C-alpha cells in the first residue's frame, strides 16, 4: 500500500484544522432599538398594567433589565446626538430639538460632519451599519445619516410624521431611502420594523450594526387601523384617536416588532452573537413615568430615567436586574469595546463601556451624570437647580430612599449641595469649551446667506 495519499490527506486535514483554529472569531452584531417618548412606567416589566409589552417583557426575562438607565437628554434630538457620538450632546451643538418649522432657527441646525459616530467607527472595522426609522438630527440633506457612516437609511428626518401618510407637522412629506424621498405605503412602525428585519437577513453573513429608531409612541396618536390626519386628501380638522386608546395600539405594534427582530435573529442562528439593547429617548409625553417625578422635557428623573433592556443569549445571564447608574452615551463605548473598533482620537467619549455590567455583573463604580446644566446625579444623590417644578430653589434628593424626588434635603446637607454645584459648573464649562459650530441661523432664516 502506498502511504503517500494517506499522508497527503492527513497533512491537508491538519492544515485545514490549523486554519480553522487560527481563523479570527466573528465580532458580535449590534441591534439598538430606540422607543420614542416611552416612559419608565410604560412596559409590563416595569410595572405597567395599562400597556402590554409581552415581547419586551420576554426579552427582559431572558436578559438584563436596568432600573437606573438614563437618556442623555430629556427630549428627542439631544438624546439622539449623544447616542450616535458617545458624547454629551452639548459638545455637538445639538442641545435642543431640531424644529420642523423652517422659519425657526433651530430648524437649520444638525449633526455636523465633523462629528464622529459609532457608525463610522464600526464601518471602519468592517461592519455594515443601518438606520431604520427616525433620525431627527438635521433636515438638510447635508445632515443625512448616510453622511455619518450609515450604509443604509430608511425612515424620516423630522421629529414625527403621520404614521400613515408620512407627512410631518409642517405638511412636508418625510420618508427617505438614503438621500432620496420615496413613496411607500404603510404604518410607520410596521415599515421601520420590516426594513429592520430585511437588513438583518441581507447582512447575516457579515458583522452588522442596526439602529432601529421607532416613531412609537410619539404623537400623533394613531394606531395601525386609524386614519391619516395629515397630508393631501385629509379633511381639514381631522382628529387623532383618543390618546389612551391609540397609545395601546401603538405600543402593541412596536412590541410585536421587537418580537419579530428577536425571532429573526434566532431563526438565522445569530442571537448568540448579537447584543440587542432597547431603551427610550426620554420620558413620557402620553404614557407613564411610573413612580418618578416629571415627564418629557423635565430634568426630574421622570424626564430622563427610562426603560432599558439588554439581551444576548449565552453572554448575558437570563433574568438579571441591575441598579447600575447608566446612560445612553454609554452604548457607543460598549460597542467599540466589544467590536475592537476605535473612537476618533479628537473626539474622546464621555460615556463608559457597559461590558462589565452586561457580561460580568460588575459595578461601574461611583458616577456623576449631568443634564441641561441644571441637574446632576452623584451616585444616588440628585441635584436640581431651578427649572420646571423646582420653584427656583435648589433641590437635593436621596434617590435610594426617595425615588419620587419629594423630600428636598438641601438645607440638611449644604456641603454636599456646594460640592455638587461645583462639579456641575466644572462639567458645564468643559462641555461648552469647544462646541461644534452650527450654521449662522440668523442669516439663514433671513435668506442672506447659505447655511453650508
TrEMBL record:
Record carries keyword Signal: yes
UniProt-listed Pfam families: Sulfatase (PF00884)
Protein name, entry field: N-acetylgalactosamine-6-sulfatase
Protein family (similarity comment): Belongs to the sulfatase family.
Sulfatase N-terminal domain: residues covered: 28-340
Lineage: Bacteria, Pseudomonadati, Verrucomicrobiota, Verrucomicrobiia, Verrucomicrobiales
Annotated segments matching region Disordered: 222-241
Gene3D superfamilies (UniProt xref): 3.30.1120.10, Alkaline Phosphatase, subunit A (3.40.720.10)
Name of the coding gene: GALNS_3
Coiled-coil regions listed in the entry: none
SUPFAM superfamilies: Alkaline phosphatase-like
Annotated signal peptide: 1-22
Species annotation: Haloferula helveola
Keyword Signal: yes
Swiss-Prot/TrEMBL keywords: Signal
InterPro entries per UniProt: Alkaline_phosphatase_core_sf, Sulfatase, Sulfatase_N
Amino acid at each position: 500500500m502506498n502511504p503517500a495519499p494517506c499522508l497527503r490527506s492527513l497533512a491537508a486535514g491538519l492544515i485545514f484544522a490549523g486554519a480553522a483554529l487560527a481563523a479570527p472569531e466573528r465580532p458580535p452584531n449590534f441591534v439598538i432599538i430606540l422607543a420614542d417618548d416611552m416612559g419608565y412606567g410604560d412596559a409590563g416589566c416595569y410595572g405597567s398594567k395599562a400597556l402590554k409589552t409581552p415581547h419586551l417583557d420576554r426579552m427582559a426575562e431572558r436578559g438584563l433589565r436596568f432600573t437606573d438607565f438614563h437618556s442623555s437628554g430629556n427630549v428627542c434630538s439631544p438624546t439622539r446626538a449623544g447616542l450616535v457620538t458617545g458624547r454629551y450632546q452639548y459638545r455637538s451643538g445639538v442641545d435642543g430639538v431640531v424644529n420642523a418649522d423652517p422659519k425657526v432657527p433651530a430648524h437649520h441646525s444638525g449633526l455636523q460632519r465633523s462629528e464622529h459616530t459609532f457608525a463610522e467607527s464600526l464601518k471602519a472595522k468592517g461592519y455594515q451599519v443601518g438606520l431604520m426609522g427616525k433620525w431627527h438630527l438635521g433636515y438638510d440633506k447635508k445632515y443625512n445619516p448616510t453622511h455619518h457612516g450609515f450604509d443604509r437609511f430608511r425612515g424620516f428626518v423630522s421629529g414625527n410624521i403621520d404614521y400613515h401618510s408620512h407627512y410631518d407637522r409642517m405638511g412636508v412629506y418625510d420618508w427617505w431611502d438614503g438621500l432620496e424621498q420615496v413613496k411607500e405605503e404603510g404604518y410607520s412602525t410596521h415599515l421601520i420594523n420590516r426594513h429592520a428585519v430585511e437588513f438583518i437577513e441581507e447582512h447575516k453573513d457579515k458583522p452588522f450594526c442596526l439602529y432601529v429608531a421607532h416613531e412609537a409612541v410619539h404623537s400623533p396618536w394613531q394606531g395601525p387601523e386609524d386614519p391619516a390626519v395629515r397630508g393631501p386628501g385629509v379633511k381639514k380638522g381631522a382628529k387623532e384617536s383618543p390618546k389612551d386608546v391609540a397609545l395601546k395600539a401603538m405600543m402593541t405594534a412596536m412590541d410585536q416588532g421587537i418580537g419579530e427582530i428577536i425571532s429573526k435573529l434566532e431563526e438565522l442562528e445569530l442571537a448568540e452573537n448579537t447584543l440587542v439593547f432597547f431603551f427610550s429617548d426620554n420620558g413620557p409625553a402620553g404614557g407613564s413615568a411610573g413612580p418618578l417625578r416629571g415627564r418629557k422635557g423635565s430634568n426630574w428623573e421622570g424626564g430622563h430615567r427610562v426603560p432599558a433592556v439588554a439581551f444576548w443569549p449565552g453572554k448575558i445571564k437570563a433574568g438579571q436586574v441591575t441598579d447600575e447608574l447608566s446612560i445612553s452615551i454609554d452604548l457607543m463605548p460598549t460597542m467599540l469595546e466589544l467590536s475592537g473598533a476605535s473612537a476618533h482620537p479628537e473626539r474622546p467619549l464621555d460615556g463608559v463601556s457597559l461590558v462589565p455590567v452586561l457580561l460580568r455583573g460588575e459595578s461601574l463604580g461611583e458616577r456623576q451624570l449631568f443634564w441641561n446644566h441644571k441637574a446632576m446625579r452623584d451616585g444616588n444623590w440628585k441635584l436640581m437647580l431651578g427649572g420646571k417644578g423646582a420653584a427656583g430653589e435648589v433641590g437635593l434628593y436621596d434617590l435610594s430612599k426617595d425615588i419620587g424626588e419629594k423630600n428636598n434635603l438641601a438645607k440638611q446637607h449644604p456641603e454636599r449641595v456646594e460640592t455638587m454645584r461645583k462639579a456641575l459648573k466644572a462639567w458645564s464649562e468643559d462641555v461648552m469649551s469647544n462646541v461644534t459650530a452650527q450654521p449662522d441661523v440668523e442669516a439663514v432664516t433671513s435668506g442672506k446667506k447659505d447655511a453650508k
